[in-house]
Structures are given as C-alpha cells and as structure tokens.
C-alpha cells in the first residue's frame, strides 16, 4: 500500500507505505531505512519474532506490543537493539540514552552515557 514518491523531494523519499507478504530473507526485511514505512512479517511464536528481529545486521530500535508485562520483559531481554519500546514508540526523554547496536551505530546520545564521549580517563600509578 502506498509507495509513491514524494513530489518535490529529490532522493529516495516515499509517502507512507506498508509492505506485506514479506519474508525474513527479503532485502526489505534486512535493510535499515527511515520514514513512514512499515514492513510486516508474520510470526507464530515470540521466539520466531525475536529470531526475525535479531536476524539482521542492524539494531537501532524495536517495538513490543503486548498486555503481558512478563512477556514484554522476556522479549526485550532477548532483542538486540539499542532501544526497546513497549506499547508505545519513542518513549523516553532527554535523560534516556539513545543509540543502536550492530551496524546501527556506535556510542550513545542523550543521558549520562552521552557524556562519556567527552571524557578522557587517565590512570596515574605512583609507587611511594
């Protein structure tokens, strides 16, 4: 559904789009892209969903939608992504670190973790 280019914008910009009938081995399921795009991959078990999500070279963010808080924690613990959202998207404020895993980036923005990029640790050892 959708897929039209956005008029007046150069580059690879698409109008809101939903891709269905996608398999985990398809390029669109393996690449990291940004925009109002949803790629739908069916799964039967939480384990299968985790395998699909972790089966890429990227790990910026993941979303879990469930009424079962125990399942949410169990799933979040197993997902390899820099941010995991449960029952909402882009949760957290300036105090929560943001960054990816795998090929989705290095380091963290926001939060105390972001300050580590400006710190140089020096160890001075002296025997007296």
Essential attributes:
128 residues, alpha/beta, 2 domains, two-stranded parallel sheet, two-stranded antiparallel ribbon, 4 helices, 14% strand, extended
Total of helices: 4
Number of strands: 6
Radius of gyration: 19 Å
Could you give a short account of the major beta sheet?
Answer: 2 strands, parallel
Strand order of the largest sheet: 1-2
Instruction: Enumerate the spans where pLDDT stays under 50 for 5 or more consecutive residues.
Output: none
- Class inferred from helices and paired strands: alpha/beta
In terms of topology, how is this protein built?
Layout: E1 17-19, H1 27-30, E2 37-39, H2 46-54, E3 58-59, E4 61-64, H3 69-78, E5 83-86, E6 101-102, H4 111-115
3D structure, described in words:
With 128 residues, the chain is α/β, with parallel strands linked by helices. The chain folds into 2 domains: 1-42, no CATH class; 45-127, no CATH class. Helices cover 22% and strands 14% of the residues. It has helices at 27-30, 46-54, 69-78, 111-115, and strands spanning 17-19, 37-39, 58-59, 61-64, 83-86, 101-102. The strands form 3 sheets. It has a two-stranded parallel sheet with strand order 1-2. Strands 3-6 form a two-stranded antiparallel ribbon. It has a two-stranded parallel ribbon with strand order 4-5. Helix 3 links the parallel strand 4 (61-64) and strand 5 (83-86). The chain is extended. The mean pLDDT is 86.
Short description:
The chain has helices at residues 27-30, 46-54, 69-78, 111-115; strands at residues 17-19, 37-39, 58-59, 61-64, 83-86, 101-102. It has 128 residues and is of the alpha/beta class. The longest helix is centred in the middle third of the chain and has 10 residues, at 69-78.
